[in-house]
Amino acid sequence: MADTSGLRVAIAGAGLGGLCLAQGLARAGVDVQVYERDATADARRQGYRLHVDARAGLALRRCLPADLLRLFLATASRPSRAFTVLSSRLRTLHVTHTDPDRDPYRPATLATSVDRGTFREILSAGLDDRIHRGRELDGYEADPAGVTLRFADGSTERADVLVGADGINSAVRRTLLPDVTPADTGARIIYGRTPLDAQTRPLVPAALRDGFTAIVGGRVGMAAGLVEFRQPPPEAAATIAPGVRLTAAGDYLMWAVSARREHLPDLAGLDAAGLHAVAADAIRRWHPDLRALLARAAVDETFLVRVRSAERVQPWRPGRVTLLGDAIHAMSPARGSGANTALQDASNLCAALTSGGGDAVAAIGAYEEKMRDYGFAAVEASRRAERRASPYWLWILERLPVRNRVAGGGR
Ligand SMILES: Cc1cc2nc3c(=O)[nH]c(=O)nc-3n(C[C@H](O)[C@H](O)[C@H](O)COP(=O)(O)OP(=O)(O)OC[C@H]3O[C@@H](n4cnc5c(N)ncnc54)[C@H](O)[C@@H]3O)c2cc1C
Known about the structure:
The protein is of the alpha/beta class. The protein has 13 helices and 18 strands. It has helices at about 15-25, 55-65, 65-75, 115-125, 170-175, 205-210, 235-240, 270-280, 290-295, 325-330, 340-355, 360-390, 390-400, and strands at about 10, 30-35, 50-55, 80-85, 90-100, 110-115, 130-135, 135-145, 145-150, 155-160, 160-165, 185-195, 215, 220-225, 250-260, 305-310, 320-325, 405. The strands form 4 sheets. The chain has an 8-stranded mixed beta sheet with strand order 16-12-15-14-13-4-5-18. The protein has a 5-stranded parallel beta sheet with strand order 7-2-1-11-17. Strands 8-9-10 form a 3-stranded antiparallel beta sheet. A hairpin with a 4-residue loop joins strand 9 (about 145-150) and strand 10 (about 155-160). The N and C termini lie far apart (about 45 Å). The structure holds flavin-adenine dinucleotide.
C-alpha cells in the first residue's frame, strides 16, 4: 500500500478534470505529473462557452490557490438572468428566471459561464514544470509496488497511482475497463462562435441578452449563449495574479445547431466551412437576425460533436489506477454538466488521496464508490435533457402558453 505522504501521482490528460486535480495535489505537496497528448494547449477545438455551477465552484475553491480562484471568478461571463425557449421566429415559448437572491459568483451558488480557453489557461497556471505536453499515454502495467506508464513514443514512467483524466476515448479506461465504451446517441451538434462587435451586437435578440436560450424549429434546434467577460482576461491577471499570462479574448455568442444524424446531410469529411454551411442551411427559414448572426460567425472555428454517452458501470475492484470525468462518465452536453462533474471528481479524488489515511488504494475505492453514484446520475440527467430537446417535446412546447417561473441557477 502506498503512503500518501510521499505519493507520486501521474495524471493522463491535461483537460479540465486533470488540471484541477493537479492543482489540488500540488497545493497539498504531492509529487504530481501530468502527461498530455496534445503538443500545445490550443491544438484542438473543444468548445467555447462552458456553463459552470456550484459543483465547479466548490471544486475550484478546494483545489485552486486563492488568487487563481479570484481570477477564475473575475474572468467569468456576466450571469444568465433567465433560460428562454424561443420559436425559430423568436416567439417566446418558455422562460425560467434565475433566483435574483443567489450570488452567481460565490462558489457555493456559482451559476454563470466561462470561456473554456481562458479557464484552461487559469487551471494550467503555475503547473508549467509538471505538465508534459506531446506525451500520449498508450497503456500501463500495474504491479503491487506501483504503475508503469507506457507512451506512444516508446518511453515509460513510474508512479504510485495513475489517474485517467484522458477524456472520452480514454487509453486508461481501455485497459482498466476494456468492455466499457460510450455509445453514440445519434445526436449531432455543429458548434460555432460569432464575435460581438458594432455590427453583430444589435442583432442579438433581447432574450439572448438575458441568458442561455434554446431555439426550436422542427427537427433542428439551436442553443445560444453569450460570453461577456466581467473583466478582460489579461487585465484581470495583471491585477489579481501578476505572474499569470492570459490570452486576450473578446466577447462572443456561442451557438450550437443540433439535429438527429438522419435529419442532416452526410457530415463525414466536412471541414469548418462545410459544417458552417450545413448549419446555415438548417436554419435558412428562421428569423433573419438568427441567420445574420450565423452568417457573421468566425467560420473557421466551426466544429462538429457526435454526441456519445456512457452506460452505468457496475463496481470494479479498486486498485492503483482510477478514472475521472469523461473517461468514465461521458455525457451529452445537453445539460451543461460534463465539466462540472469532472471538476467535482477532481476535488473528491484530491480530498481522498490527501486525507492522511495513508492507504492510496482504499482512498481510490472510497472516491470511486461516490463518483459512480453522482457521475452516472449526471449522465442519466443529461440523457433526459437530450430527450426533452427532441422534436416531439418541442412540438408540445410550441403549443403551450408561455411558462414563467423562478429557478435556482441558470445556464
Ligand atoms: C462543445 C461542448 C460543450 C460543452 N459544454 C459544457 C458545459 O457548458 N458545461 C459542462 O459542464 N460541460 C460541458 N461540456 C462537457 C465538457 O467539456 C467535458 O465533460 C469535460 O471537458 C470533461 O473534462 P475531462 O477533464 O474529463 O476531459 P477533457 O476536458 O476532454 O480532457 C481530456 C484531456 O486528455 C487528453 N488526452 C486524451 N487522450 C490522451 C492520452 N492517450 N494520453 C494523454 N492525454 C490524452 C486530451 O488531449 C485532453 O486534453 C461540453 C462539451 C462539448 C464538446
